[in-house]
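Sequence and fold:
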Amino acid sequence: MSLMDDCIELLAFWDAYAYEMKNTKASEYKMGIGEGIDQAAEMLRTYLVEYPEFVDPKVELDKFKM
């Protein structure tokens, strides 16, 4: 696996983890963790947008939504 593949996989994991933390019996603590993970993922996503082989996992899954 290349480093970019690892970064994309990490972003997908962070997105799923943040969603789980904020939407399953969310306490204030879990909401804070979820928001922090979202912020970290957005910072990494913003940095990686400059690279041509980056494919955002959120955007890739949008094509399957109805």
